[in-house]
Design a protein that fits this description.
Elements: E1 2-7, E2 10-13, E3 18-26, E4 30-39, E5 46-51, E6 57-59, E7 67-72, E8 77-82, E9 91-100, E10 104-108, E11 112-117
Parallel strand pairs: 2-11
Antiparallel strand pairs: 1-3, 3-8, 4-5, 4-9, 5-6, 7-8, 9-10, 9-11
Length: 118
Amino acid sequence: QVQLVESGGGLVQAGGSLRLSCAASGSIREINDMGWYRQAPGKERELVAKISNTGNTNYADAVKGRFTLSRDNAKNTVYLQMNSLKPEDTAVYYCHAEVLTNYVGSWWGSGTLVTVSS
């Protein structure tokens, strides 16, 4: 089993910043991609950003230049620094990881709410 524990969500005014963290633990042999998805009310879950185990990143167009994803492989942790937040960034943010245990599986955190007020 793998657990993804998220932290850092909350309420912020437009233009402000938040930092999300996600730590993976459990029977982990290797982690491939880690990243964040988000789901706003009435919308489908969408990719925000992901990072490979070699540090290659992929960002959604809506967050490029504002969000930065980093990774600490020694701690099995990813960090999403979110700057210049906009009301349209309001969503539940979910951590995701592709983890090799006895097989390669897709794991999700329980989500953390980010609310950006105008």
